[in-house]
Write a structure and sequence with these properties.
Chain lengths: 502, 426
C-alpha cells in the first residue's frame, strides 16, 4: 500500500470533490474494463428524491393517482423516520442519469458514484437483455411524448375517462410485454407522426375484423373453422390494442404507451439480482482499490464499510426483518465468489466450475454480466460456497401433504437442488401466472376467452375477479378466464358475473 | 466523461398533481374521515390538517397473482436447524399455509394495515365545507376602513418626480417653445431674406444703414429666441394615479348563547363547536369576519370570547333579552346594507313561558328581515318546549333564512351543521 494521500478527509462534500472522486473512480473503472454510457450526476434534495421515488424511476411521467399514492406513502414513512430514502436512483438512459442526495456525506456520494455511475451504468450498457429491449438514447424522448399525449387526452376526453383506462392498463402491465421481438428506436417527432398514421390505419383494420355486413354465399363449416386468434397470444395489451372492438384510437394509443413502458422495465425485472450484485461488487472493488492506492482515508473506509455491510445484510428466515432474499447480498456474494474461484480455486471449485477456475477474473465476470439474466445466472454461477455462506435451504409446501417439508439444505446432496429451485424462483415465467388469449367469438357475442395454465397446480389469487373487470372495460364484451391444469379445467371466472350460472 | 448538475433549485413539487389526483379519487373516504375528525377533535385544533386512513384493499391495484395452494417450493436463507426431509408444521390460520414457513407470517400481517396519509389544513377545511353554501347572496360593499387599489388616470400638472411622464413633458415643452418663438422665427426669416437681397446687390448701391439696422434686429431676435427656455416648470407632466376603494365582502356573526343555570359545561362545549364551525365557514367565504358574542340569562350582555364560553352565571332565562341586545347592536354598528349578517343561537330550550312569543315576534318583525341567515340549535335530549314551538312559526315565515335543529350529543354537531348549510339545488 502506498502512503496515504486522501482526496478528502472531511465528511462534507463539494462539487469539486465530487468531480475529483468521479475522475479517480472513472480511472480505475477503466482499468477494470467497465464500459459505460456518459454519466449525468444530478444533485437533488430529499423532497426531489421523494418525487423521483414515486414516479417509479421514470424521470418524466404522466399523471396518475397511483403515483400520488406512492408519494403519500413515501412521504409518510420518511417524515416519521420509518425509512431512509435510497442513497441513489439511477436511470437507464444515455447519458445515464444518477441522482445524488444533498444530505449524503462525501463518503456516501463516492459510494453512490461507484455504485450507480459505474456499476449500474456498465450493466445497462453491457447486459444482453438491456441491449435487446431498451433504447437508452430514446427513452427520455418517448416519456416526453407519452406525458404530452396523455395530458392531451385528458383535455379532450376528461380526466376520469383517461384515469379509468390507465387503471385497466396498469392492471395488465405485466402482460404487455413482447418476449421475442425487438423494438427499434425512434425520436419524439417521428413517434408523433407514426401515431397519427397508426390511428387511421388501426381503426380500419379493426373495423374490418368486426365487419357485420354479410359477405354473401359461404358455407357454415368454414365459419366454424374460423379461429381468432390463430395462435394463443401472451401479450394481452398488444392484443387489445390491435383487436379490441370498441376502443377509440386515442385509447389504443394509451394502451400502447403503457405497453411500451412495461417493455422498458422488463429487463430490470429480470435482472434484479445481477444488476444490484454487479453494482455492489463494483462499488466494493473500486473503492477498495482506491484505498489501496492511498486515495482514501481510514475514516472514509470505516464509514463506507459500515454502509456496505448494511446493504448486503441478509436477515435469516426466522428474523422479524426477513422479507425475502436480499438481491444485493445474493448478487454480491455470487460475483465475489466468482472472483475468488478465478483467483484461488479449491478442489470443489475445480469440480463445479472446471472452465472458469483459475481463469482471468475480470473477463469471466464481464462475460457473466453480459450474457445472463437472474434465472440463468443463478443456475450457472451459484457456487456451493455461497450456498453454505448464506445457509440456503428449500422448503416444499404441497397442499396434498400435511406438513411443509424441507427439500434440500446446503450440503453435497442439496447444492444442485437449491440452485435449480432458487433459479426457478427468479424465473418470471414461474412467478407470474401464465395467461393467454385463446379465443375470440368473432361472429357471435364477441366474448373473449383467456386461458390460465397452472404451474405446479398453483391457482389464481382472489384479485383475479378485479383484474377481469379491467379486461372487460378494455374489451367491452364478456370476458371468460379458464384456469386449467394440464388441459383439465379447474376453475372458471367471468366478467360480468353471470347470476344464474348454476 | 461525467456531467455534474446541481438540480436542488429545481421545482420539488413534481408529485403535486399526482397527489391531487389521489385525493380526488378517494374523496369519499377522506370526507368520511374528516367528518369523524370534526366530532372527535378538541375545539382549538379544528384548523389543523388531518391524518386520513383508507383500508388498503380499497386502494389496491389488482394484478394477476398466484394464489395459495398447489405445489410451491421456496429457498430461504439462514438455516439453523433443519436437515433434508424434516417436517415443519404449517403455521396456523393460513388454511392452505403461507408457503413460506415462519418467515412471512409477520409480513402478511402488514398487508392488512390501512393506508395512512396526511392532508393539510387547507385541504381539511375544503373537505369539511365541501358541498355547503352560505344561504342568500353575498353582499360586496364599500365600507369605511377600505382597502384601496390605485390605477392610472391620465396625466396631471402636479406630482412627485418619480411619476414624471417624459414623453408628455417634452411634448408640452415643444408646444410652448413653438408658441413663444414661432412669430419671432417668422420675422427672422423675413429679415434674413431681405438682408440676403440687400447683400446680393452691387456694393456701390448698397444701403448700409438698412443693413446695419437689419443685422441689429436679427441679433436681437436671435437672442430673444434663445431666451425661450427648453423646459419650463409648467411643461412637466406627471402620471396621475388615483386610489379607488375595493369592495370587500364582510360578514358579522352573532353568537347567542344561554348561560343560565340549566346549561352545563358540556352543553356549552357543544354550542362552542357549532359556533366554531360556523365561524370557520364564514371565514372561508368572506374576506373579513367579525364575531359578536352575546350571552344571556335573564338579561343579555355583549362579552369577549373568553367570558362567553367560560364564565358561569346562574339565573332564569329570558331569551328575548339577547334578541333585543342584538337588534340594538345591529342598528348601531352593522348596517344591513354593508354587512352580511349571520346569527347562531344555542340554547337548551328553557325560557320564561310568556317570553317565547316575544322572541318570535321580535325575530319576524325586526331581526330576520336584516339577516342573511339565522340558525337555532337546541341542545337537549328532552322534549321541546315553548321556545321551539314558537320558533317553528318563525321558520314558517322565513323558510330560507331561518333554520333550526336539535342536537343531542357531540356526534350530531357536524351532521346538523351540514344539514343546515346543505347546498340547495334550485
Amino acid at each position: 500500500m502506498s502512503a496515504q494521500q486522501p482526496i478528502s478527509t472531511s465528511s462534507e462534500w463539494t462539487f469539486e470533490l465530487i468531480e475529483e472522486y468521479d475522475r479517480e473512480i472513472a480511472k480505475i473503472a477503466k482499468e477494470f474494463g467497465l464500459d459505460t454510457y456518459p454519466n449525468q450526476i444530478e444533485i437533488i434534495n430529499s423532497e426531489q428524491m421523494m418525487d423521483a421515488y414515486s414516479s417509479v424511476g421514470m424521470p418524466i411521467g404522466y399523471n396518475h393517482w397511483s403515483y400520488g399514492k406512492q408519494f403519500l406513502n413515501t412521504e409518510r414513512s420518511y417524515n416519521r423516520g420509518h425509512m431512509g430514502l435510497a442513497y441513489e436512483i439511477v436511470i437507464n438512459s444515455s447519458p445515464c442519469i444518477a441522482y445524488l442526495m444533498e444530505e449524503n456525506t462525501m463518503t456516501m456520494q463516492a459510494l453512490v458514484i461507484a455504485h450507480a455511475c459505474y456499476g449500474h451504468n456498465s450493466f445497462f450498457k453491457g447486459n444482453y437483455l438491456f441491449r435487446a429491449w431498451t433504447d437508452a438514447e430514446s427513452i427520455i424522448d418517448y416519456l416526453v411524448f407519452a406525458k404530452n399525449y396523455i395530458a392531451k387526452c385528458e383535455e379532450r376526453h376528461g380526466i376520469d375517462a383517461v384515469e379509468q383506462l390507465l387503471d385497466s392498463c396498469h392492471a395488465l402491465m405485466n402482460y404487455g410485454v413482447d418476449r421475442y421481438q425487438r423494438p427499434y428506436p425512434i425520436s419524439t417527432a417521428e413517434e408523433e407522426f407514426r401515431q397519427k398514421e397508426r390511428e387511421e390505419y388501426l381503426q380500419r383494420q379493426v373495423n374490418d375484423l368486426w365487419r357485420t355486413i354479410p359477405k354473401g354465399e359461404h358455407n357454415p363449416q368454414a365459419l366454424d373453422a374460423f379461429k381468432f386468434p390463430a395462435e394463443p397470444q401472451e401479450n394481452l395489451l398488444y392484443f387489445f390494442e390491435k383487436n379490441a372492438p370498441l376502443l377509440e384510437s386515442w385509447q389504443r394509443e394509451i394502451l400502447r404507451i403503457v405497453r411500451k413502458i412495461a417493455q422498458y422495465f422488463y429487463p430490470q425485472r429480470q435482472t434484479q439480482v445481477m444488476n444490484e450484485g454487479w453494482a455492489t461488487f463494483w462499488h466494493y472493488t473500486l473503492l477498495n482499490t482506491l484505498y489501496d492506492r492511498g486515495k482514501l482515508s481510514d475514516g472514509f473506509m470505516l464509514e463506507f464499510l459500515q454502509s456496505h455491510s448494511s446493504v448486503v445484510y441478509q436477515p435469516p428466515y426466522n428474523s422479524r426483518y426477513y422479507s425475502g432474499i436480499n438481491p444485493y447480498t445474493l448478487g454480491f456474494n455470487i460475483f465475489s465468489d466468482l472472483r475468488r474461484i478465478c483467483e484461488n480455486p479449491t478442489e470443489e471449485d475445480r469440480e463445479w466450475f472446471p472452465d472458469i477456475a483459475g481463469s482471468n477474473w475480470v473477463e469471466t465476470l464481464h462475460f457473466a454480466m453480459r450474457n445472463f439474466k437472474d434465472e440463468s445466472f443463478i443456475l450457472q454461477y451459484l457456487s456451493p460456497k455461497v450456498m453454505r455462506d448464506l445457509k440456503l435451504f428449500t422448503i416444499i409446501d404441497d397442499n396434498l401433504e400435511d406438513d411443509i417439508i424441507v427439500g434440500a439444505i446446503h450440503d453435497r446432496d442439496g447444492y444442485q437442488k437449491i440452485r435449480e429451485s432458487l433459479a426457478g424462483q427468479y424465473n418470471l415465467g414461474n412467478r407470474e401466472p401464465n395467461i393467454q388469449v385463446t379465443k375470440v367469438n368473432v361472429r357471435g357475442d364477441r366474448s373473449i376467452t383467456l386461458e390460465h395454465n397452472r404451474h405446479n397446480r398453483v391457482p389464481l389469487s382472489e384479485s383475479t375477479d378485479e383484474v377481469l373487470k379491467h379486461i372487460h372495460r378494455i374489451w367491452g364484451f364478456d370476458v371468460h378466464l379458464h384456469s386449467t391444469d394440464n388441459g383439465i379445467l379447474c376453475e372458471s371466472f367471468q366478467c360480468p358475473k353471470n347470476d344464474n350460472n348454476k | 466523461m461525467s456531467y455534474i448538475i446541481d438540480r436542488r433549485l429545481n421545482a420539488k413539487n413534481k408529485s403535486t398533481v399526482n397527489r391531487q389526483r389521489f385525493l380526488r379519487r378517494y374523496r369519499k373516504h377522506i370526507k368520511k374521515a374528516v367528518s369523524e375528525a370534526v366530532s372527535r377533535r378538541s375545539i382549538t385544533d379544528m384548523q389543523n390538517g388531518e391524518q386520513i386512513s383508507i383500508p388498503t384493499r380499497d386502494i389496491s391495484e389488482p394484478i394477476f397473482h398466484h394464489g395459495q395452494g398447489g405445489y410451491q417450493e421456496r429457498v430461504l436463507p439462514g438455516n439453523d436447524q433443519f436437515v433434508q426431509g424434516d417436517h415443519i408444521q404449517r403455521p396456523p390460520g393460513g388454511g392452505s399455509g403461507s408457503g413460506s414457513g415462519e418467515g412471512n407470517a409477520s409480513d402478511q400481517g402488514e398487508g392488512i394495515d390501512d393506508f395512512v396519509f396526511q392532508i393539510t389544513q387547507e385541504e381539511f377545511l375544503d373537505f369539511m365545507f365541501e358541498d355547503l353554501e352560505l344561504p342568500n347572496l353575498v353582499k360586496r360593499q364599500l365600507s369605511v376602513n377600505e382597502k384601496f387599489k390605485t390605477r392610472r388616470a391620465g396625466v396631471s400638472n402636479q406630482g412627485s418626480p418619480g411619476q414624471i411622464n417624459v414623453v408628455r413633458s417634452l411634448r408640452s415643452a415643444n408646444a410652448r417653445r413653438i408658441a413663444l418663438a414661432g412669430g419671432k422665427r417668422k420675422r427672422l426669416k423675413i429679415l434674413e431674406s431681405e438682408l440676403a437681397e440687400l447683400e446680393a446687390a452691387d456694393p456701390v448701391l448698397r444701403d448700409h444703414n438698412r443693413i446695419e439696422s437689419l443685422l441689429a434686429e436679427i441679433a436681437d431676435l436671435r437672442a430673444r429666441i434663445q431666451r425661450v427656455p427648453w423646459l419650463d416648470d409648467f411643461d412637466i407632466k406627471y402620471n396621475l394615479q388615483v386610489k379607488y376603494p375595493v369592495p370587500t365582502s364582510k360578514a358579522v356573526m352573532f353568537c347567542i348563547m344561554d348561560v343560565s343555570g340549566s346549561m352545563s359545561q358540556a352543553t356549552k362545549d357543544m354550542a362552542k363547536r357549532f359556533f366554531i364551525l360556523l365561524y370557520l365557514f364564514l371565514q372561508k367565504n368572506y374576506e373579513k369576519t367579525e364575531v359578536v358574542f352575546i350571552r344571556h340569562h335573564t338579561s343579555a350582555k355583549e362579552v369577549e370570547e373568553e367570558e362567553f364560553f367560560y364564565s358561569r352565571e346562574t339565573g332564569g332565562t329570558i331569551v328575548s333579552s339577547a334578541l333585543y341586545l342584538m337588534k340594538e347592536i345591529l342598528e348601531t354598528k352593522y348596517s344591513p346594507s354593508e354587512w352580511n349578517i349571520y346569527a347562531a343561537q344555542a340554547s337548551d330550550g328553557d325560557n320564561w313561558n310568556d317570553d317565547s312569543t316575544t322572541c318570535s315576534k321580535l325575530l319576524i318583525d325586526e331581526i330576520l328581515p336584516k339577516l342573511q341567515y339565522y340558525s337555532y340549535i337546541e341542545i337537549t335530549p328532552r322534549q321541546h318546549q315553548a321556545l321551539w314551538e314558537e320558533y317553528e312559526t318563525v321558520a314558517g315565515a322565513f323558510p330560507d333564512r331561518f333554520a333550526m335543529e336539535q342536537i343531542v350529543d357531540l356526534g350530531d354537531i357536524y351532521p346538523v351543521f351540514r344539514e343546515l348549510f346543505q347546498k340547495k339545488t334550485a
